[in-house]
Design brief:
By secondary structure, the chain is of the alpha/beta class. The chain has 2 domains: about 120 residues, Leucine Dehydrogenase, chain A, domain 1 (Rossmann fold), CATH 3.40.50.10860; about 130 residues, Rossmann fold (3-Layer(aba) Sandwich), CATH 3.40.50. The chain contains 9 helices and 12 strands. The longest helix is centred in the last third of the chain and has 16 residues. Bound molecules: NADP nicotinamide-adenine-dinucleotide phosphate (NAP).
Length: about 260
């Protein structure tokens, strides 16, 4: 039986075992998927002594950057994003990739199939923002980034050739087709990174936070009449891409969606 796992700290909240086990059941794959708590201090030891037993692992906060020290090769996506969320083995090597960018892209395309030349406002400049920017650059969208700590947004300007704004007061939401929250604002709290009257009805609004699914950010966008996309879509699509990498199978999204809401 092949073994898979997600490692993080903490890890109790992770939906990865649920999503991947649904895939194993559907496809009759003889494999296990564990959620393993690995503290930052333990990461090196865990990779040396435990990882050899696993065919692949998912990597979550806080290890997405540090894990690069234990990998033979990075994919171009992982290199550009600077973070790894998936490890797999190929020709005896450990490869690190990032499927969050795939998740973002597929989630956005569920409401907006053509992203070329679409104007996107990205709120946040952390790891998830980098995956989002990478995905939208590939899709040839026109990107503006705002972040609470401006210095971090400015760093992305040089790396990805995007625009930034120092203040949300300096922009009009009607100038954007897509607005994406990649900050952690709204996670387990009824808070939004933008004022309630920020949105315009023509905006497609995506919140990558999925706990809760209906965030204040999305609720206020809906009240304005915007099309909205919830964070479960990104989570499911990034897991589907992991499944494809590990098992060579393109699973139907509904299988993992059902497991998510299970
Ligand atoms: P991260 O690297 O720690 O970045 C956090 C971002 O949130 C930074 O831009 C930070 O701004 C901003 N932020 C935090 N508190 C803020 C506040 N009070 N006001 C304004 N901005 C604030 O985290 P991450 O890995 O990018 O993850 C961000 C969120 O995305 C998390 O909620 C995570 O669960 C979610 N996520 C979802 C998926 C999915 O599949 N749906 C995948 C990955 C991540 P500063 O730079 O100013 O600190």
């Amino acid at each position: 039986m092949k073994k898979f796992a997600v490692i993080g700290y903490p890890i109790k909240h992770s939906k990865s075992p649920l999503l991947h086990e649904a895939g194993f059941n559907e496809m009759g794959i003889d494999a296990s998927f564990e959620a393993i708590e690995v503290s930052p201090d333990e990461l090196g030891d865990w990779m040396r002594t435990d990882f050899p037993d696993y065919a692949g692992i998912a990597v979550t906060i806080p290890h997405k950057e540090k894990i690069k020290d234990f990998i033979d090769q990075l994919t171009p996506a992982a290199k550009s994003i600077g973070a790894v969320n998936t490890l797999y083995r190929k020709d005896g090597l450990v490869i690190g990739t990032n499927t969050d960018c795939f998740g973002v892209l597929k989630a956005l395309q569920s409401e907006c199939p053509e992203l070329k030349n679409k104007k996107a406002l990205i709120l946040g400049a952390g790891g998830a923002s980098r995956a989002t920017i990478f995905a939208l650059k590939q899709a040839q969208s026109i990107i503006t980034c705002w972040n609470r700590t401006e210095k971090k947004a400015l760093k992305l300007v040089d790396e990805f050739e995007i625009n930034t704004v120092s203040s949300l007061d300096a922009i009009q939401s009607e100038d954007f087709d897509i607005i994406i929250n990649t900050t952690s604002v709204g996670l387990k709290k009824w808070q939004s990174p933008v004022p309630a009257n920020f949105f315009s009805p023509s905006n497609i609004v995506f919140d990558i936070v999925y706990d809760p699914l209906e965030t204040k950010f999305l609720s206020e966008a809906e009240q304005t009449g915007c099309q909205t996309i919830t964070g479960d879509k990104m989570l499911v699509y990034q897991a589907l891409e992991q499944f494809r990498i590990w098992h060579g199978i393109a699973l139907e999204p509904e299988i993992m969606e059902t497991a998510f809401f299970g």
